[in-house]
Amino acid sequence: xxxxxxxxxxxxxxxxxxxxxxxxxxxxxxxxxxxxxxxxxxxxxxxxxxxxxxxxxxxxxxxxxxxxxxxxxxxxxxxxxxxxxxxxxxxxxxxxxxxxxxxxxxxxxxxxxxxxxxxxxxxxxxxxxxxxxxxxxxxxxxxxxxxxxxxxxxxxxxxxxxxxxxxxxxxxxxxxxxxxxxxxxxxxxxxxxxxxxxxxxxxxxxxxxxxxxxxxxxxxxxxxxxxxxxxxxxxxxxxxxxxxxxxxxxxxxxxxxx
Amino acid sequence: xxxxxxxxxxxxxxxxxxxxxxxxxxxxxxxxxxxxxxxxxxxxxxxxxxxxxxxxxxxxxxxxxxxxxxxxxxxxxxxxxxxxxxxxxxxxxxxxxxxxxxxxxxxxxxxxxxxxxxxxxxxxxxxxxxxxxxxxxxxxxxxxxxxxxxxxxxxxxxxxxxxxxxxxxxxxxxxxxxxxxxxxxxxxxxxxxxxxxxxxxxxxxxxxxxxxxxxxxxxxxxxxxxxxxxxxxxxxxxxxxxxxxxxxxxxxxxxxxxxxxxxxxxxxxxxxxxxxxxxxxxxxxxxxxxxxxxxxxxxxxxxxxxxxxxxxxxxxxxxxxxxxxxxxxxxxxxxxxxxxxxxxxxxxxxxxxxxxxxxxxxxxxxxxxxxxxxxxxxxxxxxxxxxxxxxxxxxxxxxxxxxxxxxxxxxxxxxxxxxxxxxxxxxxxxxxxxxxxxxxxxxxxxxxxxxxxxxxxxxxxxxxxxxxxxxxxxxxxxxxxx
Lengths: 258, 482
Description:
By secondary structure, chain A is mostly helical.
């Protein structure tokens, strides 16, 4: 039974790891693409406004038609050229200059096509990007809090444990885990009450209880709060009662290089 | 009641409960015992703070900068920065030590974290310094102190947390704080560099001959890493993107750099780094939201007004107030971690400093962050001393002794930063086209600068230009607060 519970805990931890990793990447890419759109291609984009301002001209259309794609392709070409050069040097591969130029040109062409396709499909940009970013932050943060119990990485006042003689430490730790477990389960309960409120609100009307712009039900988004605290509570109790294993404090410090 | 609450908190601390639990139990007890919120369901106030995270744009910067720092740290950036700095600065007296300070500063800008900087740069530089005949204690002390500069070098997580924590009480833009931190960071790094040169004069054969070929070679490799702070800070101050969006740019740039350009990381390693970043975020987030709950309690019982009344009765001068605040902050920094100290005390102290004594909120923020930096080096909860002790495999007592001279220099810098607000505000004054000098409000009100009535003949900054240009451009941007 113990082995089974520990296996389940490990599996949940693996799922949590995978989820936060991919969520981090997705969140960053979505917000990054939104930034690119705001800077380069939105009408009026920041770059076009800037150049129009320098030119003393309010006519931005010309810029958006010709200059903006030119700047995007030129920037991509320069970055790609030097990136490929450094990459080849790091991989100790010799690359011909003509091949290097060709690869950089292809990258520039791809950037133009990608930008045009993006503008075609998302003329207003990813307007839900900030909301998606914040929801991801909530999920990453709280699932991270649950993972931190498994990996023993919550911040502690270390001097607390130093007060006790070695032989009392196991019992002190058990008491600490049980008390903290009770506290986080209380928070999980409060979180559930709040989610139920949001669910009732969502049920009350078609547009009620939704996150603006992205239109996701609030109760689904906030479900991560009771989930994370429930998992934390179960883990604290499990570790306190020796049902689950907690990772030893992580080796914070790498081996020193001689 | 008060005794019961204090005893509960002390008991939890004594049994080694996590900080978030100590903070949460204290908040729940305070709300239940000292306010009208007696129903259990009223405690969903804490949950509201958690849910509100999904409406606060400024929070988005924290996980993104943590993630980019984690990726860059795993991607072999520190080695390249150290190599570049050595080739650039190694020729001067104490050059290796100066390059250690510079590497710490740049790496802090990339990683956003003091302990990570200490581990990444320190594990390479301290053995190198000792091998080049620098005294062991000097080497450990210098790198440990320089590693703590991470608090002050933008983009800094400590500054973001400061800006967020005081956001209800006074308006501090994180990007202003970032810009204001640049000169104090360079100032402290400069003092450490002068100390290194002074020590370096007494060491024979410690210099590395300067070679332009070597610099070129190291720069070609290391320049990519140096671009990160340029892209992030340039984008923010150029008005191209917000600090939160800069965080996303930093993550994508870090991925591009470490996965393709340097080819040091594969997807599984990246995911591991991001997992570590999520756990770090998970360790911070409950503390942050529960501290907001505690701040609610402090607001409900008017602690700030009472504190203001108390201070008015004492009638200290602004200088006495700042010195008192600094002593308190250094003691707090020594006793608790800097994030909890910032979250609890910054919203209380910042409005008092501004309203009663006319101290500029940005200047106060920088003083606060420098204090937290010193807190990283003050026992017993001196995070960086513990890390240094473990990294360099030296007794805690020796590490504590080794940082004393550089800690002294940092405290000296702190005093100058407190009483010469120009150090903190110069960069902002230049950006905003204001008179360059800012003076400490000795009389309790901000003194007008001597040159304030003189016509200013300054070139408007790029941000002020783009700010004007972009008026109305972003009107359709969604406002999360809605």
